[in-house]
Amino acid sequence: MGEFELIDRYFRSAAADMAGRGDVVLGIGDDAALLEVPPGRQLVAALDTLVEGRHFPRGSPAASIGHRALAVNLSDLAAMGADPAWCLLALTLPQAEAPFLEAFASGLFALSRQHGVALVGGDTTAGPLSVSMQVLGTVPAGEALRRSGGAPGDLLYVSGTPGDAAAGLRLLDSQHAAAHQLQQRFLYPEPRIELGLVLRGIASACIDVSDGLAADAGRLAAASGCGVSIEVSRLPFSGALLDAVGAAAALQDALCGGDDYELCFTVPPQRKAALEARLANVKCRVTCIGILDESHGIRVIRDGVALLVDTRGYEHFSGKG
Amino acid sequence: MGEFELIDRYFRSAAADMAGRGDVVLGIGDDAALLEVPPGRQLVAALDTLVEGRHFPRGSPAASIGHRALAVNLSDLAAMGADPAWCLLALTLPQAEAPFLEAFASGLFALSRQHGVALVGGDTTAGPLSVSMQVLGTVPAGEALRRSGGAPGDLLYVSGTPGDAAAGLRLLDSQHAAAHQLQQRFLYPEPRIELGLVLRGIASACIDVSDGLAADAGRLAAASGCGVSIEVSRLPFSGALLDAVGAAAALQDALCGGDDYELCFTVPPQRKAALEARLANVKCRVTCIGILDESHGIRVIRDGVALLVDTRGYEHFSGKG
Question: Hey, is the C-beta of B89 within 8 angstroms of any chain A C-beta?
Fold first, then answer.
């Protein structure tokens, strides 16, 4: 039996331990997983790959790689307002080393347990380190959040404190206390599942912030056939970000940095009170930072003066691609 | 806009062309796909990764890589008796080159159209060439084929002519006519979806042959709590295989070669006539090659004499791991 077959068995037994879901008819061990989607619900499916050297630096903690592989996909489900249910893992790694695998699995399973997600399939292969994770969830029929439902006048919100992760990645080798907090935000992003569920029936549109707040707010606005303006004075900077990088770099990180995995969403003004009532039970911070309008493109405004304008769309702000 | 964002758009428009399925509520372009599982059906999910240099040789035709990425996953669905419905693609490649991408997409979409599968999500990333494909399908509740349903006395069958693909891979540089046919069997395997559907309600157990017939028959037998014997004289060798490699190597390839993506399944003797009646409408060849018994492990028999015995299980026969 080869080392990779041993690893498969290792994940299989770990998966069996945590698959307390009654909707897994058949998990790891057959040709495919067999799953029950509850009546009246639609299936939500996301697939994202993390490649070493591109999505995380070489030498990243294995627990972080396991955590992030699941987190970035859960974040996509959160943006749809979906309840996560199952995941499948395709892990490619140069060699099978027990310490790496145990740490990877600990990061992955800590997060999957937190959200009640069962690992139901996948495989392990020799090759350059990369992780493809498939996450499946469900949503009541017709209630999924989309990017395209916004309208002029809808208020623009963001969760958490965007910019932290981008700064944390840049400061990954720093020993400063403030940098440590930012590093954790890059290494262990928290998918906003709970917030996504609360936003069903409230938000008119939603997207997860993976490429930077300005770019992703621009994508939401474009999908909704609107323009968007963001008021700089409202941006929620973390104390750690301001301490570690200063105000100018913090603005750049918050608008154009990636890897936040926060939710950016819009709410019609008449549902603002309903939103605030529901947020009382949600742990993560949510801030109104702007508004959709009838133009197109993105305007970043400071005290009523346009700081940056990109009428072509969001491409200009994207730090990726 | 970066080159990889251009590629995403390319796949997005290609996917839009062929997504004629009414059950795709939301395809590529939002945070996740939104899909309708018909009432009374269970979801079937498979995820497999192909890594260059491991699952296909460097320099393989791009059309073959696109075809195989989908085919190996469709084969998993076939082994469950599932109707394929949707797929998500995670493509990692060193650089974005139009000729490679067009050929990759042509191979992928030719097969997806053949089986009515809609590409509903995924992403493209820079990195060492690998392809993770997620395929989703459905099956009437309770009717999925499994590895574990076989019983002593059940007849063992295999589809097609196993061994061709392994020989084709070995002879990939050969110019002989027989080798060409074998090469095609490696480069463009045909997932046995139609056969899988016919086997619902007939086969007691089923597995797809990806690691070699003996290893995978052994896995089916082990999952069913049985032993299995395979009669060499019944093995269906292709003329091309015998021509290209001779009888001894053909036997080795058929039993221990991988990448066949045929179905290996068992049928209780009392359903043999029903199987044969149904097979009249299925194009691919199916051959009875052995039987499950009350022992455990695998016996390969020639004219009543055991040629190879592995009572420990299937590991001995596996060419992989």
Answer: yes
